[in-house]
Amino acid sequence: MKIRVGVFFGGRSVEHEVSIISAMQAIAAFDRTKYDVVPVYITKNGDLFVGEHLDKIEKYRDIPSLLKKSQRVFFHRDGDRFLLVQYPMKRFGSSVRAEIDVAFPITHGTNVEDGALQGYLKVFSIPFVGCDVTASAVGMDKYLMKALCKENGLPVLNCSRVYMKAFYGDKNGTITDVEGSLPYPAIVKPVNLGSSVGIRRVGNTQELMDALGYAFQFADTALVEPAIQNLREINCSVLGDRESAMASECEEPINYDAILSYEDKYLSGGKTKGMSAAKRKLPADISLEVRQRVRELAVETFQLLGCNGVTRIDFLMNASSGEIWINEINTIPGSLSFYLWEPVGMPFTRLLDELVRLAFKRRREEAEIVYSFDANILAQFEADGIKSGIKNGIKNKKVV
Amino acid sequence: MIAVGYREILSLVFLCAHCVSTLRWLHMFQLNSYKVGVQLRWLAQNKRYWLQDNGIALCVFPFSFLVSFLVSFLAPDGASLASWAFILLFAGQCWRNRPCRMKMKKPLVYTNRIKRMLATYTILVLGTVFLAFRAGSLEIQATELAVAHLLAPGFILLANGINAPLEKAINHRYVEDVRRKLREHPGLMVLGVTGSYGKTSTKSFLHQLLSSKYDVLTTPENFNTTLGVVRTLRERLKPYHELFVCEMGARNVGDIREICDLARPTHGVITSIGPQHLESFKTLENIVKTKFELVDSLPKDGAAFLNLNDERVRAEASRLDESGCKTVTYGFSDSCDYQARDMKVSVEGSSFSVKLPDSTEMRIETSLIGVHNITNVLAAIAVADFMGVDRRDIIVGASRLKGVPHRLQLICRGGDIVIDDAYNSNAAGAKAALDVLALFEGYKILVTPGMVELGPRQNELNENFGAQAAEICDFVILVGQRQTKSVYNGLLHAHYPESRIFVAANLGEGLSRLSAVDAGARQKVILLENDLPDNY
């Protein structure tokens, strides 16, 4: 009996395509002697599909025809079985298209990485891989993440939070407020997106205005942060749970525009290889002390946010002063950060193994084991205390 | 023409009466585990139920002779009156046996087996009705139907007999299914848990402690027969399970071996050996032998965990030779591999130290009450530690252990403290429950129907129980007059005042007396000891 893993990917998110790439990489890496993998594709509308072609990346060039060859399903729990059931259902015979034991979301961005998909899975009480609802939600909202880190003394940059409606209601007032709290040059970014979408660096009022307008295409809240001089970015992945967690190798993404743009990150590196092929220095060219500090901070952040599974934490560093700040956390990192684990002796296949193990471990910890027996003489007490139980007892005189 | 109409109505009314009555016998048959011998013995012991069930139908006989006598004298018109009388008799019987009159603790479960039995039964009863319908006269028809009604328990046994080959084939298929499933799951560790008592609590504690390291499947509730294990594995075993904790119950020699042949345990726990099910086992030696079938079936690299607090387990353990698997002992004495000591038992819970095989010690605090629960927890600790569960996790897990409902479970209800031990029915457990009751301050009330299925020693054990209760309890409520006789005698022999005993006809009446007991200003502490199933 192999463990049946449902890999959920896609979803209503700007990182839909990236998620397909990450999922295909993982699906290819599962140990097939231990796992049966069921790819579950979530369309941009939120429909679920299963089918035999969904694990081949080249089929996604033409999604409509791929969907025609696949089967639309809904997720359903029947007792202790988790089923993907064909919709519309067949009139005769079984409509069950697949059964899974554990869900593995490999999804990026809003609606799927931010706790929404996790909450959906949780409703069914299926064990699932990765961060729980709260950690996913906090991890997605950069402002909340920073606030939590700040409260606990972890280094983050100051920032100013701007709401879309406030901005369009009073542009000048908003700009004045932001300029009053932060110096130029600054970075403007949507509050809840990963993968560098919607980010711009600004040097004056006009650029700030444009950048906010640009960021509001992707989210209704934007953050403005001071831009770091002599910026270097360092990323580090963490694997584990609240009880024990460890850090991976550190990488340094190579930036052309002072910020790693979406194009650099996913598109320039080749069509199918995803983040692993993005331009980077791996391991990052940093001193042992910096590496040590980054890895410690990464684990601290991971456990502070209550993360589970594998995450990637991105740091900003001032290359001349050596100062380090936590920039953001990806609760489901691109390519599951497998390329950061291989250098420390953990191949992708084992990483996946470990992730599934953590999912079951969390489920066990959550489970309340209750043994109850239906033959219960105390049922007679329960109506409203002892007295009514007695009335029932007399009324329903037992013959045997 | 009219007579035919009456006879059809009579057939229908009979059908209803027969079905209603059959459901009751079927229910009892289910509670008697579908064992024909047990059912027959049960019927022999409970003839009064059969009479209650047939009281009205029995009137049919004299009545039908009377009618045929009268009709032969009087005008044929008398037939219509007689027909109505027959119909009313059966209708009355049907109404009297109507299911909602009985409040069942464990109602009939419509399993597939029951459905198949009902299908066969339906054919049988329709055939009977048809044959009676073909009878020459109304009186003969009524007589035949009355006989059929009297034989209602037999119909079920007959249907069961007819279905037997089919059931056997189906069971065989299920067993093969499970064997295949287990073959496909080679890494699964199987931990058998057996014993005369304590096994359900031990199983629950094992599940809770081992879950910090393993994904554990446990046989639910009291699924402890071969078929219960088959059902558990068929329906619940998942590919991610790493350990199967399998409760193994026995009523006959060879029962444990049969379960072991199927489940192939790699580890085993024997919690205790006592005079349970002595009726079917005949001798204590047979019980010892049966429980140790678990140890015999373990592989060489497996391990047997033995409770040295139990004298019979201890005696048998000393006889085990070196050729078998490793044995790990637990208990309160120095010689145990896992020894509990410095025990503190209070109404808030129990705490104790465990000396581990490497001579280190850990302190365990639990909210469980009762000394014998310490033994059960100790069993779980020994297995968990042996199987590599982190010791810190064991300490944390033990402090969070929850008791099993109705097994010495402490409940506070409306100002009263209730010690619910309703699922217990053995002498050692009853004594342990009384010891727990003794710990409490307050007005101590025992509610019990006594103990059953203890074979020839039943009366003696119940009398002892009464004597023990006399020392501790301020008031005793005995449920059911017949089977509590020996507890009553035990109380009186210990010079317990009769005024502080109340014998209730049933649990309802007992509970009603309970609230009327005047405890003065003291808090009532109520021990509910044992609750008999519907077939008693």
Structural features:
heterodimer, A: 400 residues, alpha+beta, 7-stranded mixed sheet, 16 strands, 24% strand, globular, disordered C terminus, B: 536 residues, alpha/beta, 9-stranded mixed sheet, 6-stranded mixed sheet, 19 helices, 15 strands
What does it look like?
The complex is a heterodimer of chains A (400) and B (536). By secondary structure, chain A is an alpha+beta fold. Chain A is 34% helix and 24% strand. Chain A is built from 14 helices and 16 strands. Chain A has helices spanning 16-29, 63-68, 116-123, 133-140, 142-151, 164-169, 171-181, 205-215, 262-267, 288-304, 338-341, 348-366, 379-382, 385-395; strands spanning 3-10, 35-42, 48-50, 71-78, 81-86, 96-100, 102-105, 160-163, 186-190, 200-202, 221-226, 231-240, 245-253, 280-281, 309-318, 324-330. In chain A, the strands form three sheets. In chain A, strands 6-5-4-3-2-1-7 form a seven-stranded mixed sheet, sandwiched between helices. Chain A has a five-stranded antiparallel sheet with strand order 14-13-12-15-16. In chain A, strands 8-11-9-10 form a four-stranded antiparallel sheet. In chain A, a hairpin with a 4-residue loop joins strand 12 and strand 13. Chain A is globular, with a radius of gyration of 25 Å. Chain B is of the alpha/beta class and 536 residues long. Chain B has 19 helices and 15 strands. Chain B has a nine-stranded mixed sheet with strand order 2-3-1-4-5-6-7-8-9, with helices on both faces. Chain B has a six-stranded mixed sheet with strand order 10-11-15-12-13-14, sandwiched between helices. The longest helix of chain B is centred in the first third of the chain and has 32 residues, at 152-183. The two termini of chain B are 48 Å apart. The chains are: A alpha+beta (400), B alpha/beta (536). Chain A binds chain B through residues 1-4, 80, 101-102, 360, 364-365, 367, 369-378, 380-381, 385-387, 389-390, 392-394, 396-400, and chain B through 49, 52, 101-103, 105-106, 181, 184-185, 200, 204, 207-208, 211-212, 215, 220-222, 236-240, 402, 404-406, 411, 413-414, 416, 418, 420, 422-423, 506-509, 511-512, 514-515, 528, 531, 533-536.
